[in-house]
Amino acid sequence: MFTSTNPATGQQISTHEELTAAQIEEKLDKAATAYQQWRTSSLEERSALLNRLADQYESQKDRLATMATQEMGKTYASSVAEVQKCAAAFRYYAEHGPAMLEPENIELSNGNKALAQWLPQGPVLAVMPWNFPFWQAVRFLAPTIMAGNVGLLKHASIVQGVGALMEEMVLAADGPEGLFQNLAIKSGAVADIIADERIVAVTLTGSEGAGMAVAEQAGRHLKKVVLELGGSDPFIVMPSADLDDAVSKAVTGRIQNTGQSCICAKRLIVHADIHDAFLEKYSEAMKAVTTGDPMDANTDMGPLSSFEQRDTVLSQLESAKKAGATLLFGGEALPGDGAFMSPGILVNVPPSSDLMAEEIFGPVMMAFKVADIDEAIKLANDIPFGLGSSVWTTEPAEQERFIRDIEAGMTAVNQIVASSPEAPFGGIKRSGHGRELGPYGLHEFMNLKTVLLPPAS
Questions:
Q1: Are strands 201-205 and 224-228 parallel, antiparallel or unpaired?
Q2: What is the residue extent of each domain of the chain?
Q3: CATH number listed for the domain at residues 233-420
Q4: pLDDT of residue 457
């Protein structure tokens, strides 16, 4: 049994039955059957379904957004934006997907010709988190449909309502039965599903531990895996930056989704020449953040996704303080029935602190002072993660250094890191491997078949 609890009120919303072994088997059979139908569908059929799905998300955005806010606490405004982003992703693949799947003509040295052709492979399992409950899953779903594959979603326990709604939307858009199914299962059931011969690949967004477990099982069965794991993204500010703009974006970059995003700015790295002035402005802006009812349009930041998640963040902060770090302000549980906490800033974090190798999934920024660009890059890279990075400078030479030398899958220049349907998304090091979105995300789970054409007579 899964229980959905509103983290803003602590009140139970709904319950969802866990699938039995027999029900899982039935869903795997449906997926295999649906694949045999969908694999031969035309690109026009796939585009049409994606456009109908976009219509569903747009027409049902209030209902979908309310579910996300009630189940995991993000502000209603950000939930609406997330749903609209999903619709944009469906339309992106509907419009551009067919061209991405065009065969490539190859001239061989012996005078013959070949084709490189993209073909579907089968049912793909997605293991997804709660923090962007629609968007994370749509990043997998949209290219899956366009590719001619089918999808099975193991969603996070606390957002089973979202998972059920996503399956409903595909059916409402006249998608074939079995094309996309939500699996109401717990983590312990994932290994056997990965092992099942009907599953051809798996994609996961989540923690390092979950990524290692999924990758190990996929490796045992020689199945392709894409992992988007944690991050501790640097937000680097150099003297030439527009400080007011950087301050504003650093606040947004840290508190968006109550700090519960892999690509949130988590480590503020500021050049010594502007450090004190920047930190003063940043502190004032963080203290001005409005925390409260996520359904209220005037709220900047809602609760954390659960009391358990808040306790995890509070425990991390206590550990850092014991190691010698200083909490300038905030970072405290707020009174009331919800899982709220105040935004804060942590300074003097020693290299020996566990936080230097962990991800803070909550609205507390670690702040550091550096003497020059070399120290900034060294500190940015001195972590096991390599997901995103945000750099603030108007100097072209500095921009080039950051782009070349920061060890990350993404670097944003004078803006915060964000995902987009058109651009590849993913990380390196312990932040995972493989890419989502853009043509790269479409091709990840496809068979690039070489076709040797008959010689010309």
A1: parallel
A2: 2-229+431-452, 233-420
A3: 3.40.309.10
A4: 62
Q: CA-based angle 246:251:252, to the nearest 5?
A: 100
**412 contacts 82 by C-beta, under 8 angstroms:** no
Asked about 45 being catalytic, the answer comes back as no
Non-local (6+) Cβ contacts of 361 within 8 A are 131, 259, 260, 309, 312, 313
Task: State the sign of the Cα–Cα–Cα–Cα dihedral 243, 246, 247, 248.
Answer: positive
Q: What token pair was written down for 103?
A: 């065969």
- 3-state SS, residue 292: coil
Is there a shared CATH topology between the 2-229+431-452 domain and the 233-420 domain?
no
Counts of helices then strands in the chain (DSSP H, E) = 14, 20
For the chain, what percent of residues have pLDDT higher than 90? 99
Q: Which of 167, 228, 398, 436 is catalytic?
A: 228
**Cβ atoms of residues 266 and 344 within 8 Å:** no
The one catalytic residue in 71, 82, 262, 398 is 262
Report pLDDT digits (tens) over 428-440: 999 999 999 999 9
Look up the pTM and report it.
0.96
Cβ within 8 Å of residue 275, ≥6 positions away: 369
CA–CA distances in Å: residue 171 to residues 52, 178, 216: 10, 9, 33
pLDDT digit string, tens, across residues 214-249: 999 999 999 999 999 999 999 999 999 999 999 999
To which H or E segment does residue 176 belong?
none
* pLDDT tens digits for range 163-215: 999 999 999 999 999 999 999 999 999 999 999 999 999 999 999 999 999 99
Domain 2-229+431-452 has CATH 3.30.365.10: no
**Considering only CA atoms, which of 392, 368, 362 is closest in space to residue 380?**
368
Q: Which tokens in the block code for residue 376?
A: 């900034």
In whole angstroms, give the CA distance from residue 250 to residue 253. 5
* Active-site annotation holds for 228: yes
